[in-house]
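We store amino acids, tokens; thus:
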Amino acid sequence: MKVLRKRKNVLIVSVVCGAVVAGAVVASSYWKSGTEADGTAGVVETPPAESSAAPASGGNAQPAGNQVVLTDGQLAAARISAVPVERGSLTHAHTVPGRVRYNDNRHVAVRTPAAGIVTEVLVKPGDRVEAGQILARLNSPEVGTARADVLKWQAEYELASKLLERADRLEQHVTALTAELRKGDDFETVREKFADRELRDWRSKLFGAYSRFLLAESVNRSTRSLESSGILSGKTILERTGEQQSAQASLLAACEQAEIEVWQERSRAEVSAGDARRRLEIARQHLASLLMQRKVMDPTGGDPMSAGEMGADDTHLELLSQVAIVAPFSGTVEERKFSATERVQPADPLFVLADTSSLWIEASIREQDWPAVEISAGEPVRVTVPALGGTELLAKVYFVGRQVAEDTSAVPLMAEVDNSEGSLRPGLFVRVTLPVDTQSSVLSVPSSAVVQHDDQSFVFVQEGEKQFRRVDVEPGRASGDRMEILSGLEAGQRVVSTGAFILKSRLLLEQEGE
């Protein structure tokens, strides 16, 4: 057992030494190039402790302990840059995988409104179409019957409306005439006043009754004037008076009868027009349901249905059984399901149409991340697309699901992203960065500034133009390209953000040499 342990220790030591030697070789070649560029031999001497902060007069790098001093050539070759330690708010984030998918609001299956036969297909997959553009035509007897019903009740309603107008006008004229007749005005005056008004057969009936009344009244008046002379007997006078009263009663009865009958005629016409209007509306709603239209034309307008409302295009209106399948919005034809001469059933998908100018990003939030993730609809999230060279895009959260998927124990998150340039395609893999929480007044440095060795994190603090010192730090959580620093640094100190690994290699190489 001791032999085995010894061999094991020897093996570990060999591996470590090999790694150190390899690093030393790489660093040596780098530093050699840097020193040669500066005209030196590349040998670094350790200065006395009291002068470790300044480079040697020979111009070589002067490391001492945890310090690294570079020559002008090494500094230029390393391209080292430093930034100050910042204190401020830091938003921590969590990255989850996701996929690009169609925007469900702009990705639809264009379906057949009724059973029929496809007569013409006008587009193919990949074609760009505009809203309202005809995609295909089909012949449907069911739609033809529905259109015929609409046209029938359209005509019935128009006729009933005209009859109602005439009945209403007749009622107004007859009512006005009876009012004039009750006044007892001169016959010719009344006749001339209503000469050009529609009265139908009530003209002869009412004017005849009025003429008889006026005659009886005139005869009775003449008889009354002869009563005192004794020429006529009292019986004759009474008969003339009775005839006048009878004629007056007949006139009033004729007026009342006329008023009642024209009112009844107008009421019947109103009922007929209302029934025709309702039946027209039902026929239109039936046609609209067959054609899957959202709007139903208001039948009270009485106008004939246009080609669009009939579901046929202008050039084929005479073919009542033909249906024009149109694009509901502008987009691209993604799929075509049927060809010409094929029979289709109601709701069969003819095409799949999509508008890819706006897409959705679908991601899942695992249950262990629920308490930490703070996000709601409308907030922005960062999306990284590896297939596009790590391109970063901003998306807006559309919704966060409420139901937990049984197989993944995650809730869905959907974000909407602008794709007006067309760079994204449904199915692409993406990474979605979700905000977790925000801390205020924390120290942070670029993540590239923090390096590790022997499980110890440290940074290089710039103490002069060419002098850097290793400072051990306690890192916190990372947020994007920033790293929280819990201890070891103060705000304002300048740390190396580019070239920290090169300084680390130089420092380890010199420590090995010691």
